[in-house]
Design a protein that fits this description.
Elements (H helix, E strand, L loop, with lengths): L1 E5 L3 H13 L3 E6 L2 H10 L4 E5 L9 H12 L4 E6 L4 H10 L4 E5 L6 H12 L3 E3 L1 H16 L7 H11 L4 H8 L3 H14 L10 H11 L1
Parallel strand pairs: 1-2, 1-3, 3-4, 4-5, 5-6
Length: 216
Amino acid sequence: MRVMLAEDSALLREGLVRLLAEEGHEVAAAVGDADALLAAVAADPPDVVVVDVRMPPTHTDEGLRAALELRRTRPDVGVLVLSQYVERRFATELLTSSASGVGYLLKDRVAQVDEFLDALDRVHAGGAAFDPEVVRRLLAGADRERADPLAALTPREREVLAAMAEGLTNAAIAGRLHVSQSAVEKHANAIFGKLGLDGASGYSRRVLAVLRHLGA
């Protein structure tokens, strides 16, 4: 198969190039950042890309963002993500973007050559290859979210709820967060809905939401 690699560690990148070549695969490109990978794929699409999660310039999630972009624009290209970490939100997006031709392995698996090559073959064949540890953490996170409604709140909704807990009015919250009062009201209604307080007649939804926040 034709493979493109994106890995900022030159040592690991060259090791993967050598391994794939020894297995009879063609390495069409081996680059050190996500932008170079996207450019290489656009110029001459491979069968599969193998991409690290954290790469220049910020070393946060460039590789995963590139993987998601490729799933959106080039669904015919298989994507195998390698990472030292389980980036749960992006891993979930990657899994739900398509169940075919996609994989997410922890870098420890690369040392298990047969497992890595098997995952690559499955992605090339249109299957899925997710590290058992990745799946375990995704399922554990989903269980936590079902058990804790606060986990479903967005960062902005958490800010609004925290300000409510301080006793701020909607107008005061709007001033602090530099948004309109109507935006605060929308966030508040979203909070009430996610916490299951829409039908809390006879009680102050605001107080009940704050109590949930303080008890978390």
